[in-house]
Amino acid sequence: MEMTQVCVLGGSGFVGRHVCHALAAAGYRVRVATRDRERAKEQLILLPTVGVEVADIHEPRSLAAFIKGADAVINLVGVLHDGRGNAGFQAAHVGLARAVVAACREAGVRRLLHMSALAAAPAAPSAYLRTKGEAEAIVRDSGLAWTIFRPSVVFGRDDSFLNLFAQALRFAPVMMLACPGARFQPVYAEDVAAAFARSLADGASAGMRYDLCGPRVYTLRELVEYVGEVTGRRRPVIGLNDRLSYCQALAMEWLPVKLMTRDNYYSMQVPSVCDCALPFGIAPTALEAVAPVWLGSRTPRARYYGFRERASRTDSVTRDW
Q: Which of 16, 42, 296, 318 has its CA 20 to 30 A from that of 96?
């Protein structure tokens, strides 16, 4: 097939790597912006049509040079915890969305795919969801041929969600769990990636927003207990009430590595669930069908899933070349 040039912002991140795999398998030529080229190359080196370029996407001239000549731009950049400078919600979500729209207009790039989040809205209770909502509004008002994706929590081999609980259960004799009743509908990273890749080939997706959810709704307690079961590290889970959940989030903000913040607490007050099917005929992958591969189970069934997953990923990258 004829190559189409796609520029991906956030392509070396967790979801970004899956998206780049899906784009390469579909025959697109991909450029990934990064500040650490060697690290990104190690993660994407097996993809024959993916190139990694050093670019400061928060600097207008660097961003404009990166997307010059592209047929489409995909913005996957997002942060879970507020920080300083370009790592803050306002810069990473709102400021970058505005800059990407401006750069696309200047470069004559009409197609823009944007990663948002389920429940994002300007009036949402958390800064994370509010800034995601503001970014959506910027993209919708851009005049470009945009498509917005709004996933629930995304899971996969290198995620920072299920793997975080697996690590915590290694050391905690008892799990003191904030917001145990928070509701999620986890969606598999490869399903999210497939939605992005198929959207590029589907002109009817321009001007559409798609909520992306998996096949089942879980409470946070159920997810933690499932991770404990699969890893063989079952621990008593003590759900904290609302006040104690807030206090735990406040205390964790002082840790060198932020595992949870008050903003995360506010985000979890809104159920991250949806009642719609995945777009483009994608069949949602059940968490239980793939998660045992990377959660540390050594059962024969888990080893079988591992072999099958590696074979599938190798085939998806090489079959067209």
A: 42
Distance between CA atoms of 148 and 279, rounded to whole angstroms?
A: 12
Tell me the CA end-to-end span of the chain in Å, nearest whole number: 11
How big is the CA angle at 10 (ends 5 and 12), to the nearest 5 degrees?
Answer: 90
Cα(222)–Cα(118) distance, integer angstroms: 20
Superfamily grouping for domain 5-155+187-213+275-285: NAD(P)-binding Rossmann-like Domain (3.40.50.720)
Residue 74, beta-bridge partner list: 8, 113
Asked if residues 146 and 112 have their Cβ atoms less than 8 Å apart, the reply is yes
What pTM was estimated for this model as a whole? Answer: 0.89
Instruction: Evaluate whether 275 touches 183 at the Cβ level (below 8 Å).
Output: no
Write out pLDDT tens, residues 41-97: 677 777 888 989 889 999 999 999 999 999 999 999 999 988 877 679 999 999 999
